[in-house]
Every structure is written in C-alpha cells, then in structure tokens.
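User: quick one, fold this
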Amino acid sequence: MSTQDIPEESLPAEQDHAHGTVDRADEQHPFADPGLPPHEHRIQDIDERAAKRSERTVAFLFTVSMLATVGFIASYVTIPHDKSIFVFPIGHLNALNFALGVTLGIALFSIGAGAVHWARTLMSDEEIADERHPIEASPEVKAKVLADFKQGAKESALGRRKLIRNTMFGALAMFPLSGVVLLRDLGPLPGTKLRTTLWAKGKLLVNMNTNEPLRPEDVAVGSLTFAKPEGLEEHDHDFQVEIAKAALMIIRIQPENIKDKRELEWSHDGIVAYSKICTHVGCPISLYEQQTHHALCPCHQSTFDLSDGARVIFGPAGHALPQLRIGVNDEGYLEALGDFDEPVGPSFWERG
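Assistant:
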C-alpha cells in the first residue's frame, strides 16, 4: 500500500517544515541549500493494523530475549562444565560454553533487533532541520530541549504502546540476571573439595617419572623425588585437577638433622613427604638445596625449611607446606598413612 492509495484526509497532518525547498545561489551565498526531500509516510503511519503488527513483532523479540536469558541461567546451572558436544561443521565443543554463548547472543540480539524495529517502524522518522546554536545553552534552548524530549517521548508511543513498553522493561530487567548468576562461583559451592586430596591410608607413593611405586632404597639422602597417588594416571580426565592438590615432594634427610618433632614422627627413616604446591599462590615447587634443606618456589621465591616442618623462612607464603604422614607396607613400598591434615596450596577464605 502506498501513500497514493490513502485518502488525503487519512494522512497525518504535515508539520510546517521546509521539505523540498531549494534556495537560489547568489553572490553572497554561492552554494544553494538543497533542503530536505518531501517526507514519505510509512505504512505504519497510515494503517493502524500495520502498526499493531510491528508492535507485536517488537514485543515478540523482547520476549525471545527474556526466554534466552532464562535459557542462559538454566544452562549455567544444569549443564556439566566438562560435557562436550559435536556441532557441525565446527566440531567438538564444550557444551556449557556453547549453550552460554548461544543464549547470551540471542538475548542481546533480540533486544537490539527489537529496539531497531521499533525505531524504524513506529517511532517518528521525519527529518527536521535545526539551526546550529552556541555551546552555552540559553534558557530558551533549555526549554526547547525539554519540549523536544517530551515531543520525542510522545512520538515514541511508549505510553500508548503498552505491550512494547512492558515486554521491553521485562527484557531489560531480566537480562542482568545473566551476570548475577555468574556470581554463583564466588559462593561456597566447592564444598570440601579444597580440603581433601586423593591421598588415603594405604595409597602407594608412585614416582612421577618412572610411574613405579617407591621403595625407601629408591630415595637417596639429599635427593628430591616427585610422587603421585597410586591409581592416578595422566590420561584420566580429572588428572590436572587432582594432581594440583596431590602432587608430592619426597626428600631424604638424615634423621638427626630433622629439627621438628612431628616431622620426624611422620617420616620413615628420614624420608619426608611434603605438598609440592606453594602456599602463596599455588605454584609447583621444584628447587631444592641439599646443604640447607631449603625448598624454593620459582614464582615468588618463597622459601621453606624442609628440615624444620617446612616452615616459611623467606617470601610471601603465609604458612608452612602440609606434610603427608608416610610409612612402609608389608611389601616394602612407601605408602600414605592418611590424607593431609590441612588443605594444600594457598589459603582461602573459609579455611579453618
């Protein structure tokens, strides 16, 4: 339907703007002012049924945004973080990341598309020429700006188009919930996972390099050996998570050189086992001084005395390395006599 098919009395009244006027050039003003082209009315301006269709379209897009936000929250809560799916032609993707990206994208796109469609079909699209004015606003200009704002609010039909208004407010109110739900990870949801490791009574100490159980004679005085719990393999899907808590340093010190009484009781013939995870920010400790029995973290130079309960003697670490109580089983292999008696690694807010 074009404007030629609409009776003249049905067309919106034209405002007094100089559309289509062209000034003539003269010696004082060599460039002509082309003015603005005649305003062409949209179908929504002259047909209320078309306006209603556009209103429903905008409301539908805002509603889709709300549903996508609900989908974002549901995906974050229900989809396991380690689940993967195959998406053609991309390949294998993390299911949680894919769901979060799709729902968040739909929520944002729907709000933007709804706002654009609203502006292009229902808000006023008439171009108005206005004279430039000084930067400093005069009282008249302020009054005009306020009047223009009220006129724009009126032309947006926000008060009259209640369906658009209500669904837009709903979409804008619900979308921030996506960010609020992400704050869930700041809570105590990890439970006791940070307090326990795979070490337990009877677990053999396995050499990280040879993947073989350790015997006392395998650990020489002054040597540093890295160990992991029996049964933990590198191909396990949770290997990195578990080894980050269970990684162990095995050091052999002459028993008479061990200063801490509990360290001596929890050792076997001078063989002591300490967590490899630095208590500052969780870096793996890998440097050992034979003569001083000091272990050095390469990240921030925290230094621990392994002959004196692994206490901190230098650096930013806040407390000593946790010790693992060890012994020897009937077959002559080194074994754990329990788990660490305190959480390994850096301190966290709920550590007791």
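User: anything notable?
Assistant: Residues 77 and 181 are 9 Å apart (CA to CA).
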